[in-house]
Write a structure and sequence with these properties.
Elements: H1 3-12, H2 18-31, H3 44-51, H4 55-67, E1 71-74, E2 78-81, H5 107-117, E3 122-123, H6 136-149, H7 152-155, H8 165-177, E4 187-191, H9 192-204, E5 210-214, H10 219-227, E6 231-235, E7 237-238, E8 242-243, H11 245-253, E9 260-265, H12 279-292, E10 296-299, E11 324-329, E12 340-344, H13 349-360, H14 365-376, H15 379-405, E13 411-412, E14 420-424, H16 431-440, E15 443-444, E16 446-447, E17 460-464, H17 471-488
Parallel strand pairs: 3-15, 5-6, 5-9, 9-10, 10-11
Antiparallel strand pairs: 1-2, 4-12, 7-8, 11-12, 13-14, 14-17, 16-17
The protein binds pyridoxal-5'-phosphate.
């Protein structure tokens, strides 16, 4: 299938319920400015007549818009549009240095993780969602049912060290729905996405090798590189459209680029920017890596978390040679505590299975069965519909608070998926110094230099929007904003 046919085929597969599709259509009107803040949204009666949907579908769609924070209901008057996007500039495309660099863990990472555990500190730091965003009751019921029906799951060593049949089957079914046909023996279930990334990197690199990455990049990935003795080659990245493929191409042609042994990319809703590659760029990335014989490791941990519209395609969907190793987990979507991740290893699948055995043996079978049960019953998809609305609203609320409290000249990304925002403070402001003061004022965030192997992004920070917006959290953003204003002052 050629590229156009692939994209068409994959985008034709749309599993969104009717009311979500209608809500997405209305969002589109807001995005394109056809509906402005304060405008009245079409009434239920009009939607029924124009869109040929039932009244309950129309009501559900309007409620979704309200839940996402894009509309407000006024008694007796209907629904009115709220500003869809904050009126703030976004940061520019990044310009990291063209040479690979060794990675060193920052003391601040430890401080950041420790402060995230402290209930007295308002957490905007680690990308950890509120536990009550997950279907805990449903998970609890399914887990006790599994333990009751099949206690051997607890008593036996799991002989499928690469993953239980039921979960691998459900994962492949979902990927097939996304136009991505993965053979069953490519899947390896892991302990979170972190183990999947570790295995993938260990499989295709050796200590001293260089890995090409987006810049800025999730600090956890940099730490994995450091543990494995790998160097990072940071590639320019657009705040909305992700890794610049032309810049990667240029970098790979240079002498330093010839030492690149893997390329690791979060194509959908990158952490920290939320940037998302277009389908054409995904296809170009896959082609470029395959032509150069460089394995592409795709981290898709946020791929299920679009705020509106259909789920974005995977780069893996364009892979015809098995050169892409896809890594992901349910850490941001379903059950962070279960630590269930996986990889689809492409042409490296056999080697990856053996490495998984040596890395940590099998992953807990009962937790794999638990997740498989939620996928099988449709509970996961239903939960995702709600979770996406919640993340969309929370991102909007934190962005609005930043625009209220932060110094003039602050820029930020406005991601269309995931739940982190990348904020650029006015030049000269030091986010590491800000971090020290902020901790004293009981609020945390992730300082910019954590997201670079070369200590860049001193005047940037990442805010996590995983926690519910409460008056206390709003007050915490206000304290942070005041500190930044004072430092800027
Ligand atoms: C981009 C990215 N990859 C991987 C991980 C780690 O995932 P897990 O918790 O499943 O190991 C995270 C967690 O924040 C992440 O943001």
């Amino acid at each position: 299938m050629n590229l156009e046919a692939r994209i068409k085929h994959a985008t034709a597969i749309d599993s969104r319920p009717m009311y979500v599709r209608l809500a997405d259509e209305l969002c589109e009107l807001l995005d394109t400015g056809q509906l402005k803040a304060g405008d009245r949204l079409p009434s239920v009666r009009r939607l029924v007549a124009q869109k040929r949907v039932s009244a309950s579908t129309a009501v559900a769609a309007l409620r979704v818009l309200e839940h996402r924070g894009f509309a407000v209901a006024k008694p007796q008057a209907g629904y009115f549009a709220k500003p869809r996007r904050i009126n703030a500039d976004e940061p520019a495309t990044t310009r990291p240095p063209p040479a690979p660099h060794a990675v060193g863990i920052d003391r601040i990472t430890i401080q950041l993780i420790d402060s995230g555990q402290n209930p007295l500190i308002a957490s905007l730091g680690t990308a950890v969602p509120d536990p009550d965003l997950f279907p805990l009751h449903r998970l609890q019921k399914a887990l006790s049912m599994l333990a009751r029906r099949n206690p051997r799951l607890l008593g036996e060593y799991n002989s499928h060290y690469y993953g239980v049949e039921s979960l691998r089957h459900e994962l492949l079914r979902r990927y097939a729905d996304l136009g991505c046909n993965v053979p069953p023996d490519e899947v390896v279930v892991t302990n979170g996405c972190t183990e999947a990334l570790n295995l993938a990197l260990r499989c295709v690199t050796q200590a001293g090798d260089t890995v090409a990455l987006e810049s800025p990049v999730f600090y956890g990935v940099l730490q994995v590189l450091q543990n494995l003795g790998l160097k990072a080659l940071e590639i320019p990245t657009h705040p909305r459209e992700g890794l610049r493929i032309d810049a990667l191409d240029d970098a790979l042609k240079r002498p330093a680029g010839r030492k690149v042994k893997a390329c690791l990319v979060t194509a959908n809703f990158s952490n920290p920017t939320g940037g998302c590659l277009t389908d054409v760029d995904k296809a170009a990335l896959v082609r470029l890596c395959a032509q150069r014989g460089i394995p592409l490791i795709e981290d898709d941990i946020y791929g299920d978390l679009q705020h509106s519209g259909p789920r974005p395609l995977l780069a893996k969907a364009f892979d015809t040679s098995g050169n892409v190793i896809l890594c992901s987990s349910f850490g941001k979507t379903l059950a962070p505590g279960a630590r269930i991740g996986w990889l689809c290893g492409g042409r490296f699948a056999q080697a990856l299975r053996l490495r998984k055995f040596a890395s940590s043996g099998p992953t807990a079978a009962i937790l794999q069965e638990l997740v498989a049960e939620l996928l099988r019953s449709g509970g996961y998809e239903r939960h995702l519909v709600k979770l996406r609305h919640t993340y969309a609203r929370q991102v909007g609320e934190v962005a609005a608070a930043v625009s209220r409290y932060f110094p003039r000249g602050t820029r930020m990304t406005q991601p269309r998926g995931g739940f982190v925002i990348w904020v650029e403070l006015p030049r000269g402001l030091d986010s590491t110094a800000l971090f020290e003061s902020a901790i004293r004022q009981r609020v945390n965030f992730a300082p910019g230099p954590l997201f670079s192997a070369t200590g860049r992004y001193r005047n940037f920070l990442r805010l996590s929007c995983g926690r519910r917006m409460t008056p206390e959290l709003d007050a915490a953003v206000a304290r942070l904003g005041r500190l930044a204003v004072r430092m800027a002052g």
